Amino acid sequence: MQAPVVSAVHASGLHSFSKFTEPVIRLIAGLGVEGDAHAGATIKHRSRVARDPRAPNLRQVHLIHAELFDELMADGFAVWPGDLGENLTTRGLNLLGLPTGTRLHLGDMAVIELTGLRNPCSQLDRFQAGLMAATLARDAQGGLVRKAGVMAVVHQGGEVRAGDGIRVVLPAGEPQRLEPV
Fold it and tell me: Locate the MOSC domain: which residues (predicted)?
């Protein structure tokens, strides 16, 4: 199996669905991706700001595994890294199988902590018809599997670029399954 790696990095200062591929992004501790519309100590996602603008931002960094793009393309969708709004595209790492509180060391300095799952929404279908259903599945017990990535907060800042390695540090204690945030 391939060692976990950052395969692409993305940011956008606009509240747009997709993000632009960049050569490098800078993560800022407690805030997120420098210059990204979703950076901040409090929530920046429009639907969530409407509910409580003072809520802590548990969605500072959005990650999607490149294997999801492989799967979607094989199913006939024209989607590329950055199209679904993620900041980091990873390869060789089962993001969805990691517990809440997992820390990912990215490149030389940056450290992020997983806070939960991205809950696929109707914006996916506005991007391409049928995409929302394609990012949902059922496990062997019939439980809903959300495949649209995970969210994280920045614990230690630093630059991240495609090709950077990812080191996984699991949290102490009983693992807690990722839930939508």
Answer: 3-169
